[in-house]
Write a structure and sequence with these properties.
Length: 197
C-alpha cells in the first residue's frame, strides 16, 4: 500500500481557513508588503560607459540566462512598434519609440493574482517584480536604458513575443503552465537585442 501524505496534492489546503486567508485576504496596509517595497524602489542610474557587447543574438541569450538565474520560468523579447510613440516618451515627443525592445518574464502561478489578493496569492507578482527589478538594474549597469513598465496589455505583448497564446479573457496561456502563468511587468530597453516571436 502506498503511503500518502496529507499535504501532497493540489487541493491539500482546501479545508485550511488560514490558507484561504493567506491566499485571498488583501493585506490591511500595502506598505507592509514586499511588492509595494519593490514597486516603489527608485531605479538606479545608467552607467556612463556602455559595455562592449556581442551580437544582438548573443546579448539576448545573456539576458535570458540572467533572467532565468533570477527566477523567471519563461522569458521572451518583443520588438516594440517603431511607429507608435513610447508610453514613456515626454508629452509632445511622439516620433518613434525610444525603447525598441521589451523583455517579458513570466512565472508559474497556482492562483491568479488578479483574483487572489492575499499575500500568498500575490507571490507571482512579488517574484516577477524581483526578477524585473534586478534584471533592469543589470542592464543599466551595462550602460543602457532599462525601465520596468506596468502595462495592462503585457499579456498580449508576451503572446506577440511567443510565450503562448491569448485566451478569451485576453490572458496568456503558455505551453508549459497553461493558464497558470503570470506575466511580470515588461522591461523596456534600448539594449540591442534580437526579438523572438
Amino acid at each position: 500500500m502506498a503511503l500518502k501524505f496529507p499535504w501532497s496534492g493540489k487541493n491539500s489546503h482546501k479545508d485550511d481557513p488560514f490558507w484561504e486567508f493567506f491566499v485571498n485576504t488583501p493585506p490591511a496596509d500595502l506598505t507592509n508588503t514586499v511588492t509595494e517595497l519593490i514597486r516603489n524602489a527608485p531605479a538606479g542610474n545608467i552607467f556612463p560607459n556602455k559595455a562592449e557587447l556581442h551580437t544582438p543574438e548573443i546579448t539576448s541569450s545573456h539576458v535570458k540566462g540572467m533572467a532565468q538565474y533570477f527566477g523567471t520560468e519563461l522569458i521572451s523579447i518583443a520588438k516594440l512598434d517603431d511607429l507608435s510613440p513610447s508610453p514613456l516618451a515626454p508629452p509632445g515627443k511622439g516620433e518613434g519609440n525610444e525603447f525598441p525592445f521589451a523583455i517579458l518574464c513570466a512565472v508559474h502561478a497556482d492562483y491568479d493574482p488578479r483574483a487572489a489578493k492575499g499575500i500568498g496569492g500575490q507571490m507571482p507578482v512579488q517574484n516577477g517584480l524581483f526578477i524585473t527589478f534586478v534584471l533592469s538594474s543589470w542592464i543599466r549597469e551595462l550602460g543602457f536604458r532599462a525601465t520596468v513598465v506596468r502595462d495592462a496589455n503585457v499579456d498580449a505583448l508576451a503572446a506577440k513575443a511567443g510565450l503562448g497564446t491569448l485566451n478569451g479573457n485576453g490572458r496568456l496561456v503558455s505551453r508549459e503552465f497553461g493558464a497558470e502563468v503570470y506575466v511580470a511587468d515588461a522591461i523596456y530597453t534600448d539594449l540591442p537585442l534580437a526579438a523572438d516571436g
